[in-house]
Fold this protein.
Amino acid sequence: MCGMDRIPIGEPPVEPDNVVRLPGAEAAEQPDAPEQPDEEMSYEEAIAADAEGPVDDEGATTTPGSQFAGLVEQGVRVGAGLFAAGAAALADALRSTMPADDDETGGKDPAATIAGAGLGAAVATAEAAAGAAKQAADTIGPAITWLVEPRFAKDAGEMAAGAARVLDGQWKASQAEMVDAATSFLGALVPEIARGLADQVDLTALVRERVDVNAIVEDVDIDRILDRVDIDAMIDRIDIDAIVARVDVNRAADQVDVDRIIARTDLVAIIHRLDLAGIADEVIDEIDLPRLVRESSGIMANETVQTVRVQGMNADRLVAHVVDRVLRREARDLLPPERESEEGDR
Amino acid sequence: MSGTRVTVFPEGAAARQGTRAGAVSRLGAMAIDLVYSAALLAAAYLGVASFRFLRNARTFAWPQPAFDEILLAGAVVVVLMLTIAWSSTGRTSGMKVMGLRVVDPAGRPPGPFRSLLRAVACVAFPLGLFWSAFSRRNASVQDLLFGTSVIYDWRMHVPAARTDEPAADAGAA
């Protein structure tokens, strides 16, 4: 058959007997219930109407009807999977709300048990729903053309409107209670999900990989930030004396290239600014120049005089020695007179 | 006078300080003293001439003393010079150059009277000095006459008391 867009309309009537229906789900599927007799009836008519058609069962498995069944099966499986994942998170959320009493259960977690049961039920539901959907799609295909006929659409629309009003009333009656339940459930679930996400994602690496920090920094108006900073107050809070006390000034001074500083200094200009004549006058005033000349000349004279004296001494001794040799006598008595008087004449 | 200065003696000179000086040193001192005396004599001559010139410049003429007068004047100058020098410091200019000093038996500079007599004796008989070359104590005739000695003494200060040890205050003020 043609018209894939018509296929979803026929899906809601499919309701196999072997599907386990939860009490909550029954209300949700209530809108389909009134239509079922019409669908049953129109199904008979559709069979009759399509009896002359070239379509057979074999052809139905390869037509869009079988594709529709595959989609339904896949959709149910995905739904069940989502339900399973949600059940795991639900189990954590439930566990967080329950009082800690692990000893009573002997290590068996009731929340896990509930979640597991829910998961098993979901899987069974999914498989059963998939099988039923396939069968229903195979058989419902011929009825689809009839479903879209204006007459039937009008009747069905009226009936659906009535059922919708009834359901709306039921919904409004229990709305507040359900919203409260959902709110408390989400209140426990969302932080759990956020925590799980945070555990799984390395935000730092993600930012580093995905975010151009330099571009962000370029957009930052640093001047405006600095305008808001009270640097004076910051400086007041710094103990500069303590910092200076920790600085090794000698070590820093060792690193200073004094030669380079001197090379850059205009010594001639400095000398020109000095009163050299005045300094020289002061220095000369401080020096006793006459005494210096006196002493230096005295030293020179002293050296000359010493030489003459020593030569005189040597000459004295030589003459005395010669005379003593000539006179054939012993060495002279040259002791000083005061010692001589002490020791007596010889 | 740099009294506080410590005299540094050349090698061998220190050991001979205070011993009797020989003839050569004394003759050298006498030669220097003769030159010094001649200079003093010339100065005296110029002084006399100046006096004459100032008294009567018109009749001024250079004084032309006789030889006797010159000898007498020279003798007076030398005696005065020697007396003053010996009695004060114990040495003349020539003796100071040669590092000599005249001392009495106590080791001090001779008194004025002894100095005068010794000076007169030296001027009257200069050859007496040469006896020091032959004396066993390096004594001249004048030394023998007046009990004086001439010693090597390079120290600047004058020896004071006879009880003082000469070596104790060597180099001191």
Summary: Confidence is low (pLDDT under 50) at residues 1-5, 24-40, 52-62, 102-107 of chain A.
